[in-house]
Amino acid sequence: MNAAAMKKIIILGATSGIALEVQRQLAHQGCELLLVARSPQRLAEVQADLAARGAQQVFTYAADLASIHQHAAIFEFARRAFPDFDTVLLAYGSMHDQKDSETAVDALLEELQVNFVSASALLTLFAADFEHRHTGCLAAITSVAGDRGRRSNYVYGSAKGALSLFLQGLRSRLHPAGVRVITIKPGPVQTPMTDHLPNSARFADPEQVARDIVRALERRSPDVLYTPKIWRYIMTAVQQIPESIFKRLSF
Amino acid sequence: MPGQSAATLGKQPADQPPIKRILSWGRYPKTAHHRVHKPAWNDQVPDILRSAAPGSLLPYGLGRSYGDSCLNAGRELIDCRRLNRILGFDEATGMLRCESGVSLSNILDVFLPKGWFLPVTPGTRFVTVGGAIANDVHGKNHHCAGTFGAHVRQIGLHRSNDGLVICNAGQNCDMLRATIGGLGLTGVIAWADIQLKRVAGPWIDAESIPFQSLNTFLDLNRESNDRFEYTVAWLDCFAGKNPRGIFFRGNHAADRGKEFHPKRGPKLPFALPAWMLNRYSVKAFNTAYYRIHAARKSVAAVPYDSFFYPLDSIRQWNLLYGKRGFLQYQCVIPETNVEGVEELLDRIARSGMGSFLGVLKQFGSAPPAGMLSFPRPGLTIALDFAMRGERTLKLMQSLDEIVQQSGGALYPAKDARMSSTVFEASFPRWRGFVPYIDPKMSSSFWRRVTGAQ
Known about the structure:
The complex is a heterodimer. By secondary structure, chain A is an alpha/beta fold.
């Protein structure tokens, strides 16, 4: 790996299914990590695990990433305890049963708050820092669900799609400063977030998805990562379907 | 993040179709489960236990038990594979604390480069720590190290009625002895402290010696037990009373300073058609295997994975036995009844149904670590039989008779069909274990052999 380019990594949402696998692979490479997630107990367990697996140093900070008023404290802690961090990976998200959002506005707003509003707010803080320093890599996990609105999953999809658009613009803004922005679009992955979906046993292995993500963090390309790779082709095809037909599809 | 834990636990509709994809390693019996919980954190386990009906749950790991001891047909499983964190390691003493879903493979990947090895390892690295404890597994060093459970110093055990119970030699030691070999029935292991052992490196100084009779095998053991940490034999089960086989023995080698990368072997992509395994193809394989080893130089330094885990190099080798799956037969027979072993081998050879090389190992005399531990002094034999319906089951019943007459026992982790009589004879003190069973736990195996509901 390019050790000079990525040594100090902040993971926002460090107890999410995909993040857990990413962190293990980074730990194995000897990276230093700052993990942010809600539960101090879970963070401590993850910290112990990563230390045993070779992470140079693992810091943790417990905070609710979805609540924006905690963001300043998260950012301050990062600047203080983990100066010169060079990579930020935003890995948290939530997927409620869409039916809840169709009938209860609160559920809808929470889904948007977690997956888009809070995520874009947090990224803005770190973007400014990287832009100022003229360095860094900002990566966020969105979803293939954001590429097209589907009947069964459009609330989650629209939040993730908005985040993808946000990253696209941010990438362009930060490009002159030499800051990299990576949009990570996983297909369905076997994690606690998707256990309740039908056929979840056939979803992608989080270890494989994490391998793709770690590789993308190390390299100069791509800007948009589909993982597993086949989803780039699937989504290209899905986007070609005319709306007049797509609206009749029940998935 | 909010909502994520709710999604883990609460969202399976009650009218979910039965889950058929979870099978044991033998792929027999075919079972369907009503629900599979997949906790990602130990803090989620108490809720699962609390909300379950009595006798409805069983922890599940990597599913390497061969029969139905890891299954809970028509009921629920707790898939522990996401509970796979290493929680602590003392570099000075080699004491490891890890969650129960950590695999032995994972422990080797992380700790062998640091000079630590498993105190005991079964013939596959793809078992979880929870499974290794629940079956009190043994390995090629049983004669000097005892079972896996003998190296478990402490566990944290989720119990449905009294929360997280800490069990060690001084505290709840009965519960520790019940959980070791307790087939997952005493609760969900949250974490375990395991004493790893120091080794110089990943190499084994191994020897292989052909033998042509049971007596030669016993002589080889006598001569090797003090000098070799690991001993085991593969035998050709078509040879009958005077089995030919290869005796393997080895010790951890001094450091060779060579960089070492375990390799990932091929994978069987699907179940092979049943006709491919017949007495001629298997006989030919066994003969070829014997010839190769009998001809080859017998002393060599080999990588640990080829010494301990030859079958792991073909992933999903269990698919070799076709759609109907296979049964394994593992028994132990006291050495005072060597005729029993001979009779058993003779019966198998005459049936013509035996399969690839069987495994033969002399157990040591270490006292059992658990209440229901299988290993005891004597000779243990393990053989595979492709499932061919009634005649396979009949043959195994006739083997049971020999084992019983010889005062032997069968191994629950390998079993899908022993009768309650045979279980009773194998574990005469099983009723003493019953009070330690968690009221929320049960398994297909346990209901079958004890008549529990």
